[in-house]
Predict the structure.
Amino acid sequence: MGTPVRPQQVETDYRDQTIQSFAKSILRLGQECRTLADENKTLKAEVERLTNCKSEADRLKAEVERLRTSSFVTAVPVEEYEKLKSNIEMLERQVNYWRIEAECDHGRWQRCLEDLEHLRRLK
């Protein structure tokens, strides 16, 4: 027969396993937080780029309207106007999409930070 296991030894082994499990979870969450932070930086840069595109689209839209209403210009070709209008709509949809993506990533980032804080408090 084997040697009997003392209750104190079992409790110590269980605590060590629990601590190791928490440590692994904290490391995993830390890595996820770093990954999300990198993705968040990338998304912020993309949102900034798209915001600049939207500014440019707004400027072009105003320019087209100014040209259409000016008396010394006969008219902007309809095809060109429609092409500009469709480009503006596409850029607005892209800006909206990335704004929603950034908000979702921000929420994920917040949840990771909350989970990490909760695990730290369990120590």
